[in-house]
Amino acid sequence: PAPMFPWSKWKKRMGASASSSKRPVFDEREDVNFDHFQILRAIGKGSFGKVCIVQKRDTEKMYAMKYMNKQQCIERDEVRNVFRELEILQEIEHVFLVNLWYSFQDEEDMFMVVDLLLGGDLRYHLQQNVQFTEETVKLYICEMALALDYLRSQHIIHRDVKPDNILLDEQGHAHLTDFNIATIIRDGERATALAGTKPYMAPEIFHSFLSGGTGYSFEVDWWSLGIMAYELLRGWRPYDIHSNNPVESLVQLFSTVSVQYSSAWSKEMVALLRKLLTVNPEHRFSCLAHIQASAQLSGVVWSDVSEKRVEPAFVPNKGRLHCDPTFELEEMILESRPLHKKKKRLAKNKSRDNSKDSSQSENDYLQECLEAIQQDFVIFNREK
């Protein structure tokens, strides 16, 4: 495995011991912005955009900051997704989600500042060959059931539940992230778009796409939860599906292939997975009440789960930062617009803009889009 980043050294490096008397005080009326944060280190790349650890200068609280280059978002036609994700995140907050705290923009980037979870994502731990026990996976199912139940109450289908999008905190509790392709459906509505990551997508999504049937609803997230739970226990997924599989063959697959369960698993776990991986969404476990009423989870004290009083059996190693250490190097060596040089760069751009003759820009369309983003972007501060 790749060498880990030494967490204790890093804490020293970032000046965690700086005395609070040196904290800057920001004007209450001023909108939160880039200057309010100290950039500490790069930790990852999302579906688009990058993620780094930041510290808010006045409170010294630590967060993860995702930043997305506006021009790249325009070129990849992803602005709508970013706006939808922000719109959703600004309205929700839950103990088992990665919650948004602030959003703001400058000329180059859009920023989202969210909960910092240092335990790594479940994909990372699978790749490190962590052997997840039934007890651990059962707790993840319960924690995600509470998160999905909350999302349902807010009319949200996540559509991308998978190990990559479950982050652990330092105690080992699970948090769902990445609302990039989530959708809001009002009472009685159904979703129809082919959206998600193929190996985790429910059969009815493919069915609806092919036959234009009645669409799909919240049940799809519970199927994904079942696929993920199976993968965590076994190390591979129950169906051999890849992103390049044609939709037609997948519809066929679900009607012909039956899932093989390990003989080493308890009867209760197999029964629970069967209920989550039921092809017909009407018979699938797909709400908190189903899960809570199941014999397989009869011993669960749900109030303890929701208050994080159930201790996870798998606790990520506290002395390490659970991400690929090459991100930090990439940010320093390969990044053409590194964050730590942003201030200088923006000042330079301003003087260049002022010196340009004001004739039509060579790229009117891009300019128009950038102006639209500047105008429509919603600045958010959860503390206000």
From TrEMBL:
Keywords of this entry: ATP-binding, Kinase, Nucleotide-binding, Serine/threonine-protein kinase, Transferase
Residues holding ATP: K66
Residue stretches in coiled coil: none
One GO molecular-function entry: ATP binding
Keyword Nucleotide-binding belongs to the record: yes
Region of interest (Disordered), residue spans: 340-363
PROSITE patterns associated with the record: PROTEIN_KINASE_ATP, PROTEIN_KINASE_DOM, PROTEIN_KINASE_ST
UniProt-listed Gene3D superfamilies: Phosphorylase Kinase, domain 1, Transferase(Phosphotransferase) domain 1
Single biological process term from Gene Ontology: regulation of signal transduction
The keyword ATP-binding is annotated on this UniProt entry: yes
Ranges where the Protein kinase domain occurs: 37-297
InterPro entries assigned to the protein according to its UniProt record, in alphabetical order: Kinase-like_dom_sf, Prot_kinase_dom, Protein_kinase_ATP_BS, Ser/Thr_kinase_AS
Biased composition (Basic residues): 340-349
Pfam families reported in the protein's UniProt record: Pkinase (PF00069)
Family from the record: Belongs to the protein kinase superfamily.
Annotated protein name in UniProt: ST32C kinase
Organism: Melospiza melodia
Gene designation per UniProt: Stk32c
